[in-house]
Amino acid sequence: MKKAGTALDDMKIHVRIKISALWASVMFCYIYGDYFGLYVPGALQRMLEGKMGPFGPTTQGILLGTSLMMAIPSVMIFLSLALKPNLNRWVNIIFGVIYTVIILITMWDWAFFIFLGIIEVVLTALIVWYAWSWPRREAA
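Above: the chain sequence. Below: its structure as tokens.
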């Protein structure tokens, strides 16, 4: 007698959780890219000299601007779970598009930056797609 097969449980994951997980994944790629970037020859020396890549001399304004740029995706991990659906959808579409463009502009250097950049573009494009195609329900 054959034993009846069992199927693996597969629950539907809400779009909020998918988008939040995508932002977390993007942040991991950013962090690893920045960390590995420290190993690029001359990178640490430029840091010690107070230079920040194409921005030139490191200033409080440059560091604040860079911090703001990196804080948004970090906060989007939480906001994707907490904002009301309509606002959530549009904030994710807007920031997903903005960060896709930022990645496309900044990823062209070393092979590992290009590799991580491709992953980041796919992830941010998925954020936009999931937000754009957010499931609708009929109004009560």
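Residues 15-132 form one domain.
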